[in-house]
């Protein structure tokens, strides 16, 4: 039964559905974390229902599923095991409904939205779908679906149904909102943009003092090299292969560059690729970096790179680069343009040679790097704060609850 108008806004009991191994130090998880913290500051009680694996963080109320005996590790991206995890997540979320008695459900990703839509009908509370990219596009990016296959057609129809039936959709970018309208025929009045954001008090330029120099030495980065930094997932759809191939082009012609590549999974695979390309002496792989360590790691870079290939997902790493005051090279996609604006250095999408050209252009121009980095820092401060994002989400909650 639909609820009537409430007497006050804010201080909601929110049940978040997060079909992932939260928390695990990458983009989607950072959005879930920072949205939760922003809502908590506004007086909301937020309970996160998620998979059995993941890092427990202080100050967060997390309800986890049971484990399954044949799959103990983290789930990153598409996996045939996720169906079992999502069934367990549905059961865990249903049980949490009894203990939390939420005012509304905040569902991340399409799997979460499917769970949220069922529980919304059973419990009589509204749900909000936090859209972070096309489900079928992500599955193709991960090599999990083939275009035109029966599985693709089924998943595409399911995605369209989830998108078009969701009463309120939060998008991480205006490009995502356009995608939902143009490709999935979602009514525009159901869409509300709550862009990814960044904590500019945490991600900020750091002094290049002795502590900075010692930290740089601890990673084995040779003195005198210009450092290109990347922090994110390592995978083909993230452009990791393209980045290493571009590095090979550059290192064949010059010896003054060093690529600091931070993230996971598949670290050993990309270490082997760097050896096969003959550039292992110019690449440092750090493996997984804790979220709280990310600013210190990024501060080692002279400029940053984001070679992400996906055309539908957000790119929260760009905001971290911006807040750190790092000039940034990215493939020329709508999401990159939305974040970096006129201050980005762009390469033609999926073009390794043009990516190498753009990287070389910044490597050879320190004054330009400094100017672009300062401009991107200002842009992050002015346009992309989690406080503003929290206000936007609360406004959607109030609409969903019939308060406006």
Fold blueprint:
Layout: E1 13-18, H1 27-41, E2 45-50, E3 61-64, H2 82-100, E4 104-108, H3 109-123, E5 127-131, H4 135-141, H5 150-165, E6 169-171, H6 174-182, E7 191-193, H7 210-218, E8 226-231, H8 240-253, E9 257-262, H9 267-276, E10 283-287, H10 294-298, E11 303-306, H11 316-323, E12 328-331, H12 334-340, E13 345-347, H13 352-363, H14 366-383, H15 386-400
Parallel strand pairs: 1-2, 1-4, 2-3, 4-5, 5-6, 6-7, 8-9, 8-11, 9-10, 11-12, 12-13
Can you summarize this structure?
It contains 15 helices and 13 strands.
Key terms:
6-stranded parallel sheet, alpha/beta, 7-stranded parallel sheet, disordered N terminus, 13 strands, 404 residues
Describe this structure in words.
- With 404 residues, the protein is of the alpha/beta class.
- The protein is 44% helix and 15% strand.
- Helix 1 crosses helix 15 and helix 11 packs across helix 14.
- The chain is globular, with a radius of gyration of 21 Å.
- The two termini are 19 Å apart.
Computed structural class: alpha/beta
Largest sheet: 7 strands, parallel
**Amino- and carboxy-terminal Cα gap:** 19 Å
What integer is the average pLDDT? 92
Spans of at least 5 consecutive residues with low confidence: 1-8
Alpha-carbon Rg, integer: 21 Å
Strand order of the largest sheet: 3-2-1-4-5-6-7
H/E series, N to C? EHEEHEHEHHEHEHEHEHEHEHEHEHHH
Helix content: 40-55%
Shape: globular
Strand content: 5-15%
Number of strands: 13
Number of helices: 15
